[in-house]
Amino acid sequence: MVKEVGRKVIASNRRARHDYSILDTYEAGIALAGTEVKSLRAGKASLSEAFATVDDGEVFLRNVHIPEYAQGTWTNHMPRRTRKLLLHRREIQKLIGKTKESGVSLVPLSLYFKDGKVKVELALARGKKAHDKRQDIAKRDAQREISKAMGRAIKGKHKQQRAGRR
User: Fold this and answer.
1) Most buried of 6, 52, 144, 151 (most Cβ within 10 A)?
2) Alpha helices in 42-120 (DSSP H)
3) CA trace torsion 95, 99, 104, 107 (10° rounding)
4) Which residues pair with 61 in a beta bridge?
5) Which of 112, 103, 122 lies closest to 26, judged by CA?
6) pLDDT confidence of 73, banded at 50, 70, 90?
7) Widest CA span of the chain, in angstroms?
8) 14-18, 57-61, 70-74, 109-113: least confidently modelled range
């Protein structure tokens, strides 16, 4: 059996970075059933409506959609079941303290394989207001325009150098 090395992303929640400002990130393992792992190895999962909660000193991932395994039998899993996250006690205590603040929530950013084990990147996030989102879009557009102008300037220098050689 060949051991997998590195990080292979299964699913990412790109919308999370748009809707939330990320305060801190954590890496957690997930308690999964066998058919869930097989389905994830096929690259099927959705984090679009997922979130995490802290209940009784444990962290749970809710609303993650992992479709049933196609070759599974009656032992197949429920696609949207609640899954326990595996974190160190210190990290859980820190999360409990931070999530008690108003407006802070736990959002999964990505689901991936790391050295053959399924991990989730969990973010401590605060929801953005509409004007914050507009500011981010304006900054991104301005940055894009700057990089385009820089590219044009560099290409212009190349043309001048070529013309000088002839």
Assistant:
1) 52
2) 89-99
3) 50
4) 52, 83
5) 122
6) low
7) 76
8) 70-74
How many whole angstroms separate alpha carbon 51 and alpha carbon 63?
7
Where do the structural domains in the chain lie, given as residue ranges?
7-128, 129-166
pTM of this structure: 0.70
d(CA 93, CA 108): 18
Q: How far apart are CA 21 and CA 32, in angstroms?
A: 29
Q: Are 61 and 46 in contact (CB under 8 A)?
A: no
Instruction: Find the angle CA(26)-CA(24)-CA(27) to the nearest 5 degrees.
Output: 10
Return the H-helix or E-strand segment holding 162. Answer: helix 130-165
Please name which of 2, 84, 87, 88 lies closest in space to residue 36, comparing C-alpha atoms.
Answer: 84
7-12 and 83-86 as β-strands: parallel, antiparallel, unpaired?
A: unpaired
Using CB atoms within 10 A of its CB, is residue 132 exposed (0-12), middle (13-18) or buried (19+)? middle
